[in-house]
């Protein structure tokens, strides 16, 4: 199995400048390749340029501009071109599926934060100075950079990436490992219901409070964004020192919220994986749930619109994004696979409207957000607990069907 490690780097001033130049030059390569594809399709009889054609031009590009492109790893530049190719592949896939296309866009200098090295030892070397007690990683054109390795890397390192987050630099490794020993079985199964009032409710009746990290930080974010709005919009190299500080303040607050959300997701998923052998959850279509409200034209007054609940839907969308369901479910599946557990996704339709006692399904069974009251058999319970119970039953049916 493949596991990722992320470590903080501590580059010197010169290394920081070199890392920034590496990102800038790879960003220029990405934008140049995108421009070439656009021009070829628009002006040369709708010709499509492939990754292989652009990769073959790298030697000429490096020879023509050795100061900007020749000093960086050839493999990392190929990875940047492959990144653009994946963006176009996703674009055409969305067109075929009927989704919003999302044509690949040019990247600004502050919006290109990652450079990938497809193979350890090709343009980079993890812990090249093993005799030194300080862990280091070497990058072509940068040198040996100190790394704050807070845990050991198990397995053979396959890929290495450089990532910039604000003023901090990180190295991200992927290592190939043998599958770990599964955790001892507990004989417990559970269903979970995701929500806004409670982040998670399980079929045993336990409720996990929604931490609402973004809402708790809203006052500080509002003040920081108000301070940033006083400066006119301009390119990064035209910003004053105070403008740059305001930008970094907003980024730091958003980064703190993101880390808090990740920490909560990791701890919650770990508790579930340790306590239960089978975990059933709703297969949530989060993108569809967080769409904006559609306008309602007024038939009696052309050009006017009827109330569509846009303000309430906007608040709900913010709450859904703040909860971070997608991140949590991704982490849950990864931890379950590593621990030898089963995480099963089931259809979420009517899970909170179906009575667990008699099976009657109706909208009227859920008169309020928290209350469930079956109109057929008079069964009453918490709506989220009912949803978690139905999710567990559906998950066990799905599991038994697959085993058969």
Keywords:
16 strands, five-stranded mixed sheet, about 400 residues, single chain, 2 domains
Structural description of this entry:
This protein is an alpha+beta fold and 404 residues long. The chain has two domains: 13-144, no CATH class; 189-403, no CATH class. Helices cover 44% and strands 20% of the residues. The strands form four sheets. The chain has a seven-stranded antiparallel beta sheet with strand order 2-6-7-1-5-4-3. β15 (371-373) and β16 (380-382) form a beta hairpin. α1 crosses α5 (74-97), α7 runs antiparallel to α8 and α8 crosses α11 (325-339). The longest helix has 35 residues, at 241-275. The chain starts with a strand and ends with a helix. The mean pLDDT is 91.
The low-confidence parts are: none
The profile of the biggest β sheet is: 7 strands, antiparallel
How many domains, as an integer? Answer: 2
User: Mean pLDDT, as a whole number?
Assistant: 91
Classification by helices and strands: alpha+beta
Number of helices: 12
Radius of gyration: 26 Å
Shape: globular
The first-to-last residue Cα distance is 27 Å
Order of helical and strand elements: EHHHHHEEEEEEEEEHHHEHEEHHEEEH
Helical content (DSSP H or I, runs of 4+): 40-55%
Strand content: 15-25%
Q: Which strand order do you get reading across the main beta sheet?
A: 2-6-7-1-5-4-3
Q: Please report the total strand number as a whole number.
A: 16
């Amino acid at each position: 199995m493949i596991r990722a490690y992320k470590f903080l780097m501590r580059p010197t001033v010169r290394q920081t400048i070199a890392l920034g130049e590496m990102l800038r030059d790879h960003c220029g390569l990405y934008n140049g390749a995108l421009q070439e594809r656009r021009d070829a399709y628009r002006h040369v009889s709708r010709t499509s340029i492939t990754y292989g054609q652009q990769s073959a031009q790298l030697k000429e590009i490096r020879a023509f501009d050795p100061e900007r492109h020749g000093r960086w790893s050839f493999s990392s530049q190929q990875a940047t071109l492959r990144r653009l190719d994946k963006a176009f592949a996703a674009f055409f896939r969305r067109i075929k599926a009927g989704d919003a296309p999302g044509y690949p866009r040019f990247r600004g200098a502050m919006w290109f934060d990652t450079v990938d090295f497809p193979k350890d030892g090709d343009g980079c070397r993890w812990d090249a100075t093993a005799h030194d007690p300080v862990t280091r990683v070497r990058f072509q054109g940068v040198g040996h950079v100190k790394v704050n390795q807070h845990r050991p890397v198990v397995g053979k390192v396959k890929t290495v990436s450089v990532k910039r987050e604000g003023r901090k630099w990180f190295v991200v490794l992927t290592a190939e490992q043998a599958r770990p020993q599964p955790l001892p079985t507990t004989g417990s199964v559970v269903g979970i219901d995701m929500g806004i009032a409670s982040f998670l409710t399980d079929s045993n009746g336990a409720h996990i409070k929604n931490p609402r990290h973004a809402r708790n930080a809203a006052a500080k974010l509002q003040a920081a964004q108000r301070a940033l709005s006083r400066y006119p919009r301009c390119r990064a190299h035209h910003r004053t020192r105070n403008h740059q500080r305001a930008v970094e303040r907003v980024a730091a607050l958003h980064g703190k919220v993101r880390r808090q959300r990740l920490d909560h997701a990791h701890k919650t998923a770990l508790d579930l994986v340790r306590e239960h052998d089978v975990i059933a959850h709703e297969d949530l279509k989060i993108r569809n749930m967080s769409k904006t409200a559609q306008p309602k034209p007024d038939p009696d007054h052309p050009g006017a619109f009827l109330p569509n609940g846009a303000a309430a839907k906007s608040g709900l969308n913010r709450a859904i994004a703040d909860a971070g369901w997608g991140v949590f479910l991704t982490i849950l599946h990864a931890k379950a696979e590593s621990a030898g557990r089963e995480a099963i996704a089931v259809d979420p339709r009517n899970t909170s409207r179906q009575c667990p006692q008699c099976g009657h399904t109706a909208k009227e069974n859920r008169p309020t957000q928290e209350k469930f009251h079956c109109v057929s058999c008079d069964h009453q319970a918490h709506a989220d607990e009912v949803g978690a119970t139905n999710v567990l039953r559906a998950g066990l049916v799905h599991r038994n069907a697959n085993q058969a």
